[in-house]
Amino acid sequence: MNWFQHDAGSTQDAKIKKLLIRHGAVGYAVYFHCLELIIGNVCEHNITFELEHDSEIIADNLKIGGTGEKSGREIVEDIMRTIVDLGLFTNENGHIFCYKLLKRINMSMTSNKGLREAISRAKEENHDVIMTHHDSVMIPTYLPTNQPTLPTNKEKTPDKPAKPQKHKHGEYKHVLLTSDEYLRLCEEWGEPELLRMIKELDEGIEVKGYKYKNHNLALRKWKTNEKNRSGGYSKPLPVHNRETMLDLD
Question: Are 104 and 83 in contact (CB under 8 A)?
Fold first, then answer.
């Protein structure tokens, strides 16, 4: 990938502030340069978010010169230790990862179908982690693997295939969508707009107790109603009418 989202208020983040206090602008430069190096290696076959460059390369890229006490490489190593200690990166057996970058990428950043699907799968499998505040440490729950899926002992009825698994979305986890539904909506609306609509529906269910059997269709109905009104998004239909319209499964 060639780019990722960067918050304009990054310097107000508590962990970034600590990094600046301890290492100044050089620490800030090293952190975001590492993010650039990691995201530059992301492709449909590599969603590991591992930093593959060592401290010597990073010091040379940023032209970090040594001092009377430390070399440029040692300065970078000190900064990397702080970054890991603050929880901005994760150190696993000497390998550095930044799993929270998964929150910074979306399908609109690439036209590659394989990469879009890989991003969608990764987001679905890590949804509860990546939807937390960006100051939280992400847990490495997703790593690509070539291992085959082990068969289960439970036999499935051939004429009754299992329904696709639905994943929880939104702050209150009320909105349920399958991976395919999420991906299709992203392709139609763009991920930022989809996340906005999920937020509206999720909060409506939380505050008003609205009930839907098909949240994919509910989101589409809310979107259609919003377009047909001049003043913001439309309020949902009364429960008894809405269930009649949306219970199409």
Answer: no
